[in-house]
Design the sequence.
C-alpha cells in the first residue's frame, strides 16, 4: 500500500494540549476488562497519558498476558516506563510466576481502588477514576478529569471506556515498542504473512469471530463464513489488475472450501500471533472487536468494522484505529 493510500485511510485525530503537572503521579489500573485486546487497549491509553505528562504507571491487571510482550515479560509491576533494573521479584526464580498465578497483586489493587473511593482517607492525594456518568465513553483529556487528578499523587483507575486517541497517535511509536510481542510470536506472525506477500500485491486480513459472538448482543455481529467470503470478493474487485491474498484468522477452525476462488492463508495457533499477523496486512476487515482495533493501531493499517450482514465493504470506509470508540 502506498503512503498516499495510508494517509487517505487514516482518521484525523487531534492531539489535545494537556497540562504538565508539577508533581509526577503514579497511575494504577485496578479493573480487569475482558481478554487480551481489551486489556492492551486500556493499558495503552494510560501509557500514552503517562508519556505525555511524565507520570508512572503500574498495571497488575495485565499479569495474565505480561509474559507475552517485550515491555512486561520481565517487569512484575507491568510498569511504564520500563524500570532500569529488574525487581528482586523478577530475579528470584519462581517468585514472579507465583504472583502472576495467584493474582494477589491484582486483587490488592482492585480492593484498594474501591476502598479509596468509599473511604478517601488520603484526601485529594489519592483519587479513583471511573467513566463520567451518562457518556458513551470518557476522554482522558477532558477538563473534569484533568482537574480531578491535579492534586493527586496516586491515581487508581477503575473503568474501561477511558480513551485518549490523540495521545495514542502522538506517542504511537513508543507504545508499539512497549507492546512488541516476544520473539516466538513475532516470528509466528511473520511466517503467517510472508507466503501471502510472495503470492500477491495486496494482503487483506480478515477476522472472523464466531464463538462468543453467537450470543453477544443477540448475535448482532455474528456473520457466516459465506458472508465474509462475499466481502472478500467485493474487496478484491476494488483492486483491478492486482493480485489479492487474504489472511483469515478465527476463533474456530476454517477451511479453504469456505472461500472458493480466493487466495487464502489461515491463522496461527495463538491469538497473540494472530493479532500481530493481522497488523502485518495492508487492510483489515472484521466485525466490531477490540482484537482488530489493536491490529490496526499496532500496524497502522486501515480497518473496516462491518456492523451488519448487508453492509458493503468499500475501500474508502477503511480507517486506521487509534483505539477510540467504534
Sequence:
Amino acid at each position: 500500500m502506498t503512503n498516499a493510500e495510508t494517509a487517505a485511510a487514516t482518521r484525523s485525530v487531534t492531539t489535545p494540549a494537556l497540562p504538565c503537572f508539577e508533581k509526577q503521579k503514579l497511575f494504577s489500573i485496578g479493573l480487569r476488562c475482558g481478554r487480551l485486546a481489551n486489556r492492551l487497549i486500556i493499558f495503552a491509553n494510560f501509557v500514552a497519558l503517562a508519556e505525555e505528562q511524565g507520570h508512572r504507571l503500574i498495571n497488575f491487571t495485565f499479569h495474565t498476558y505480561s509474559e507475552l510482550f517485550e515491555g512486561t515479560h520481565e517487569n512484575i509491576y507491568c510498569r511504564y516506563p520500563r524500570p532500569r533494573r529488574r525487581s528482586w521479584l523478577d530475579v528470584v526464580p519462581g517468585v514472579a510466576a507465583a504472583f502472576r498465578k495467584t493474582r494477589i497483586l491484582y486483587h490488592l489493587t482492585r480492593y484498594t481502588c474501591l476502598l479509596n473511593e468509599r473511604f478517601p482517607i488520603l484526601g485529594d492525594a489519592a483519587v479513583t477514576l471511573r467513566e463520567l456518568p451518562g457518556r458513551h465513553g470518557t476522554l482522558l483529556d477532558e477538563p473534569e478529569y484533568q482537574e480531578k487528578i491535579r492534586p493527586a499523587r496516586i491515581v487508581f483507575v477503575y473503568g474501561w471506556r477511558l480513551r485518549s486517541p490523540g495521545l495514542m497517535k502522538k506517542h504511537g511509536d513508543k507504545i508499539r515498542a512497549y507492546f512488541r510481542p516476544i520473539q516466538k510470536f513475532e516470528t509466528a506472525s511473520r511466517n503467517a504473512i510472508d507466503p501471502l506477500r510472495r503470492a500477491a500485491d495486496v494482503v487483506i486480513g480478515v477476522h472472523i469471530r464466531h464463538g462468543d459472538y453467537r450470543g453477544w448482543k443477540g448475535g448482532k455481529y455474528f456473520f457466516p463464513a459465506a458472508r465474509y467470503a462475499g466481502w472478500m470478493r467485493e474487496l478484491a474487485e476494488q483492486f483491478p489488475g492486482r493480485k489479492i491474498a487474504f489472511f483469515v484468522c478465527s476463533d474456530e477452525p476454517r477451511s479453504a472450501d469456505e472461500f472458493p476462488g480466493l487466495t487464502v492463508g489461515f491463522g496461527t495457533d495463538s491469538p497473540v500471533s494472530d493479532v500481530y499477523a493481522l497488523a502485518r496486512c495492508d487492510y483489515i476487515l472484521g466485525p466490531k472487536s477490540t482484537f482488530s482495533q489493536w491490529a490496526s493501531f499496532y500496524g497502522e493499517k486501515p480497518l473496516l468494522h462491518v456492523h451488519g450482514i448487508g453492509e458493503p465493504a468499500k475501500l474508502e470506509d477503511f480507517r486506521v484505529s487509534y483505539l477510540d470508540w467504534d
The chain has twelve helices and eleven strands. The first strand starts at residue 26 and ends at 29. Confidence is low (pLDDT under 50) at residues 1-12. The two ends are 24 Å apart (CA to CA).
